[in-house]
Each structure stands twice: as C-alpha cells, then as structure tokens.
Specification:
With 356 residues, the protein is mainly β. It has two domains: 31-127, Immunoglobulin-like (Sandwich), CATH 2.60.40.10; 131-351, Immunoglobulin-like, CATH 2.60.40.1190. It has three helices and 20 strands. The chain has helices at residues 10-24, 245-248, 313-316; strands at 33-37, 49-56, 62-69, 75-77, 80-85, 90-99, 108-116, 119-127, 131-132, 152-156, 159-167, 171-179, 197-204, 220-226, 233-239, 263-269, 272-280, 295-304, 309-312, 348-351. The strands form four sheets. Strands 9, 13, 14, 15, 18, 19 and 20 form a seven-stranded mixed sheet that branches.
Length: 356
C-alpha cells in the first residue's frame, strides 16, 4: 500500500514546490506570482463572471494589474483590475462577461496576465463551465437523459473521461463516463492492482483542506463502484465534514461505509463505463443549500488501476502543482495510489437552471 509523508520538512517541501513550478509549464521559479482562471459558473444575481486566482510567491508585498482575454468575440470588463497581496497571500479577482457564447466542447481559451514587480506573468489556459442544470434523472444506467447537462471532458493517456452533473431540490446527480479497456468491479476477487471506482468530494465554498491530521475533513466524500451485476453499483461514504483527517489518512475497509441513501447504477457499453448516481441533499443541506446560483467545491478521481491509473479532475482543470495534498482524499482498501498525492478537491462548481 502506497504511503505519503504527511509532514515533510520545510526545506524538502520548498524544493518539491520549486521543481513542480518549473516543470509545470504554468509557473517558473522566477515568477513573482501565480495566476489561474477558475471554472466558469453563472450566478443569477450578478450575471456571468470569470474569476482569476492570484497567489503572491514573494516574501514581500506584491501589487499588480490583472488583465484577462476570453475566446474570440467575447467582451469582458473591466479591462484590468488592481490587486495588492501580502507575502504568500492568494486572492480571487472577478471580471464580468458582458458578451459571450456557449461552445459545444465546453472548453474556453483564456489568456490572463499579471503586470507587477517589474515583470509580466502570462498564462494561457483552457477553462470549462462547471455548472449543474436543474433536472431529475432516472438512475438506471442509461446515459441518454444527460444530453441537457454541461459535460466536462478530459483525456489521460489517450483515454477520455466525461463528467456531467444535475441537481434538484432533493438530490445532486452525477454521471461519469470512463473510457477504459476493462472494468474490474468491487466485490469480486480484485486484480493485484485493485478495482475500478470513482471518488467524489463535495464541500462548501468557504472550506479549505486541512494540513494536520487532528483537523476535520470539512467535506462530503463518496466512492462509486460497480458490483459486476447488470446495472449494479454501490456508494460508500468516505467522509463527512466532522470526519477527522486522521481517519481520512487511514486505509479503511469499505463494507462498513456503505451509503444506502444514494442511488447508483453502473453500466458498460462499447468500452465506456458509466457511473450514474444521485446523492440526497438531506445530509448536505446545512453546508450546501440547493438553490439556483449556489456555488460550492467539487472534484473527482477516476480509479483505473489496470489502465491509466488515477485520473485527477483537478489536474485536468489546471490546479497549481503545489496544491497536492495527501489529506485531500480519503484512503480506502483496494485503491492503487500514484507516486504523488492527488491535487486538492477544491474546484469551483455551481447550480444553474439550464445550460441554455
């Protein structure tokens, strides 16, 4: 079972961060600031917004003008925004989308820059709209009901993953379509590498992943697996907001964690495994109230141990390389983890009325 050092020495951590920055293609060790465009959502009270995360990498205050350009034909205002950051501080800078249009591929090219400290830092990034339209699907393994969702598609080692979400007043629903050579279900004798699964983390937008095992998880976390029978699937609840991160870090048996309140169906057709589920808002309502325009955090890991390994949505959507955390995802028996921990589970998501 792979383990990670949860409390690295500061000098080692600094070296890992510096190397990751240099190799990522997004940030270099000489840059005074890191910038990243967040997923798009559509808050009904303000209209479409695009937000930029700006992190000061200096040991001194940093001031800059942040500018952003969207896809061809889009109009974004204002032209630039000023930002002032304390050493190490991260701040969110929002711009209004005054004119834009949907792209069928749900992949929007952006170019963002920060001009300060005597240099201009530029980042080009493809951004997705991460919103769940209002709809109640039947959880029966049939993906045809998901044509009105807003799918996010990414490739890992040439294999496609498509994530779609819906919501209604009672439940949050998700379809994860995984292109893979074979499916290794839970409950049968697993291969030496482990079995296939989809791991989901959902948390309120004011939450943060802790850094020590005595802190709380502050998230809801679920695992979806196939059972090997027609349309058969199960859901396990790996964490709730009150679960300690010490518990998260311990590889646990799944059987006692079965979550019977979720509806799950897993089917496979023409080399694609479809994980379909609905999770009731009942237990999450105090932290994530189901209303139009609600924003929260969501991310997913696809476990394909005898194929591509772990497919990390956070990596596909451009989280910074130093945002890896051994405490961001629960350990469980049967999982095969990569050499490095996954990225954090804090990807911005939203609830909307429709994709149109």
């Amino acid at each position: 079972m792979r383990t990670w050092n949860l409390t690295p020495r500061r000098s080692v951590l600094a070296l890992i961060v510096w190397l990751s920055m240099g190799l990522s293609g997004h940030v270099t060790a000489a840059d005074p600031v890191a910038i990243r465009v967040e997923n798009l959502t559509v808050p009904p009270s303000t209209g479409p917004l695009v937000s930029v995360q700006v992190k000061n990498l200096l040991e001194q205050p940093y001031q800059a003008a942040v500018s952003i350009q969207g896809p061809s034909g889009w109009q974004i205002a204002p032209e630039r925004r000023g930002v002032a950051l304390a050493p190490g501080e991260t701040r969110r800078v929002a711009f209004a989308i005054e004119k834009g249009r949907n792209l069928a591929a749900n992949s929007y090219p952006f170019e963002v820059s920060a001009d300060g400290a005597g240099t201009t830092v530029l980042r080009k990034q493809s951004v997705a709209c991460a919103s769940a339209p209002y709809y109640k699907p039947e959880i029966d393994g049939d993906p045809s009901e998901w044509k009105d969702a807003i799918p996010i598609t990414f490739l890992i080692s040439g294999k496609k993953t498509v994530i779609s979400t819906y919501w209604n007043r009672r439940q949050f629903s998700m379809l994860v379509a995984v292109e893979e050579d074979r499916l290794s279900p839970y409950g049968q004798q697993p291969p030496p590498a482990g079995f296939d699964a989809v791991q989901i983390a959902i948390s309120p937008e004011d939450s943060a992943t802790g850094s020590s095992q005595d802190q709380k998880a502050a998230r809801f976390e679920f695992l979806l697996v196939a059972t090997g029978v027609a349309n058969g699937g199960r859901c396990f609840q790996l964490a709730s907001p009150e679960t300690t991160l010490a518990e998260v870090a311990r590889a646990r048996d799944l059987a006692p964690l079965q979550y019977a309140d979720a509806a799950v169906a897993v089917t496979r057709e023409e080399g694609i495994t479809y994980y379909e589920c609905s999770i009731p808002f009942r237990s999450m309502r105090e932290q994530i109230r189901p209303t139009e325009g609600r924003e929260f955090f969501l991310s997913a890991l696809v476990h394909d141990p005898d194929g591509t390994g772990i497919r990390d949505l956070g990596e596909a959507l451009g989280l910074w390389p130093w945002q890896r955390s051994a405490l961001a995802w629960s350990r469980w028996k049967g999982a095969a983890w990569n050499e490095k921990p996954p990225l954090d589970n804090k990807l911005r998501w939203g609830l909307c009325t429709s994709k149109y």
